[in-house]
Amino acid sequence: MLEGLLIGLQTALSLQNLLMVIAGCLIGTFIGMLPGLGPMSIIAIMIPVAISMGDPSAALILLAGVYYGAIFGGSTSSILLNAPGVAGTVASSFDGYPMARKGQAGKALTIAAIASFAGGTIGAILLMIFAPALSSVALLFHSAEYFALMVVGLSAIAAFAGSGQVAKAMLMTILGLIMATVGEGALFNMPRFTMGIMDLQSGFGFITLAMAMFALPEALFLVLKKKEMSGDGGQISELRISAKEAKAIAPVIGRQSLQGFFIGVLPGAGATIASFLGYAVERNIAPKDEQDEFGKGSIKGLAAPETANNAACTGSFVPLLTLGIPGSGTTAILLGALIALNVTPGPRLMIDQPQVFWAVIMSMFIGNLVLLVLNLPLIPYIAKVLAIPRNYLIPFILFFTLMGAYIGQNNATELLILVGFGVCATALKFADYPLAPLLIGFILGGMMEDNFARSMQLYDGIGFIFERPMTLALLVVAVILVALPTYRARRARARAEGVADGD
Amino acid sequence: MALDRWIAFVILCVSLAYGYAAFFTMDGLLAPFMQRNPIWPSTFPKVLSVLAILASLVILLGLEKTPETDAEPDIDYRRLGEYHLVQALLLLALMVAYALLLRPAGFLLSTVGFLTIGAMVLGERKLHILLPVSIIATGVVWYLVEQVLGIFLRPLPFFFV
To answer: Could you tell me the residue range of the domain that residue B56 belongs to?
Structure first.
């Protein structure tokens, strides 16, 4: 491990990579602060830049920095404006905004920054411990287990993501898998479902799809509904917190770092669930007199979701780096970027390209430090970005989306596909269909089919499911994951209608 | 019928077409030696089409009740006309125009046009600020893409180059 740490430090501390962390954090904070733009759109917009740098460590470091920055920036706008830029920071506005209203905006920002720093750093330490252990287990996996594992991941995402409507999330996942079959597969070298259109020969572009799923609908929503952006970024003072307050939030930070990290590791859960759960748990275990403070500007209520969402962001890197299976939309985009850079994340990553793995972990520490020491003092100035008129902002967002899709493929047809899919994605968003499962399905689709085909060929048929107990067990878990929420919802409804329980 | 069920209906139609292609048209093209393979190019799509049809039917027939929420949706599509729909549609049209004009009209001209017209669609009228901003931004992006990332973008209209 020590050797790995040193390799990571050596890579991460190069001048170029240090600049990447700083730039990523600043860009992320900048855009994450704008209400309505989530980390996924920002990362999608940054991917063409990252890919054309050509160095996988630098690219991943930049994108991870953007991710952290976006979460940090999102909490800033939830505290100052009560307008969360990111779903993962909605819970921060419960107590952060009342604090800002009471004139304690500076203190709230400091607590948020310290909590994020602690959550991210403890998360990175946990990642350092758990990822190698998990990847040594994952090395025993066979393509049959990989296939089963991806099925489990996808069904977990379908079961936990979205607004509790399993069928919709399932349908989106399957749709993503279907879209992944368009074009020439590596295994058969036969164009499938291209309808004779040459531009579809190599399949849909992953960047185009990511932009169309996240950046475009969010921008269109900003056009359709004018968000209130009337904050005064000038009145942020008193950034210090007292020793008593620090002592009060320390145990909260400790608990929520652990809890957030493990929630983040689960596929489909991620920062949003971690922050809401962290808030709820801390409110329930707080003493009675402090419990009443929650929602009125409690420092514990602010520290809990902030710690949890940053720890969960770090946790979501575990399945990505050890199994090569993304658990959230953001890590799915990172996976796509890595594949484009010819790096296949998975258990072999630590053996084949240790510098990538360890550099990312080291850059997490550096990134958290940058956010604390560089961004926090700059926040009063960065908050001025909230004053950029949306008339200027929105055309630029749309332009960067178009540019990203064009640079990726160098093909103007791609832009038309982008607009088409963007309109479809907006319609899906209107109807409350979750979009992240679609993208995750699309990215995993090719890998899943390859592994499936390989195990079919090795076992000459579907028999591999029964001959490998672990595969069977994983597939059973996948079925349970999808069936259980449906069954529970059904039973809850039956009970609500006065039907007696069977047991 | 609510929008989510209409969408499920559309997806059902798409997956029926997809399933038809997978089950009936793809295998005919398969070379004889490949037919001995336990897995065909159409195997995975067949499975997917069945699953997609089942999932969309579940939504279309309303087998899974949508949970009752009081939460105001971010945008209520039933009252779409009350939002800035025209602006959104104009911007989409502008994006299509940009896609079609990017090659023939060159990067610089089409981008300046896109940024300027886009802002004007949203209600910006201060042209003396808007034009310089978009020209400078276009120049900077063009420099970054062309010189730093090394990707060729034709800067000027086709009759100049």
So the answer is: 3-67
Q: Identify the residue with better confidence: A498 or B2.
A: B2
Q: Which residues of A15-54 are buried (b: 16+ CB within 10 A; e: fewer)?
A: eebeebbbbbbbbbbbbbbbbbbbbbbbbbbbbbbbbbbe
Residue B141: inside a domain, yes or no?
A: yes
Structure confidence at residue A502 (pLDDT): 41
For the segment A442-451, what is each residue's pLDDT rounded down to a tens digit?
888 888 888 8
* Structural domains in chain B (count): 2
**Through-space distance between the first and last CA atoms of chain A, rounded to whole angstroms:** 52
Whether A171 and B55 lie within 8 Å, measured CB to CB: yes
Whether the pLDDT of residue B12 is over 90: the answer is yes
Q: State whether A224 and B56 contact (CB < 8 Å).
A: no
Which chain B residues contact residue A208 at CB under 8 A? none
Same domain, B53 and B100: no
Residues of B in contact with A411 (CB under 8 A): none
**Nearest-CA distance A120 → chain B (Å):** 30
| Sign of the Cα pseudo-torsion (A349, A351, A352, A354, in order) | positive
| Amino acid A503: pLDDT | 42
| Interface pTM, i.e. ipTM | 0.87
Domain membership flag for residue A503? no
- Nearest chain A Cα to B100, which residue? A412
Nearest CB to A395 within list B34, B100, B119: B119
A131 in a structural domain: yes
Any idea what the Cα angle at residue A34 is, between residues A30 and A36, rounded to 5°?
Answer: 140
Please report, to the nearest 10 degrees, the dihedral formed by the alpha carbons of residues A179, A185, A191, A195 taken in order: 0
- Domain check: are B7 and B62 in the same one? yes
Give tens-digit pLDDT for A278-297. Answer: 888 888 888 877 777 787 77
Of A164, A178, A489, the CB nearest to B48: A178
In this structure, of A209-218, A263-272, A365-374, A429-438, the range with the lowest mean pLDDT score is A263-272
Last residue in a domain, options B67, B101, B116: B67
Question: Residue A161: pLDDT above 70?
Answer: no
pTM (2 d.p.): 0.79
Residue B158 lies in a domain: no
Q: Residue A376 belongs to what domain range?
A: 2-493
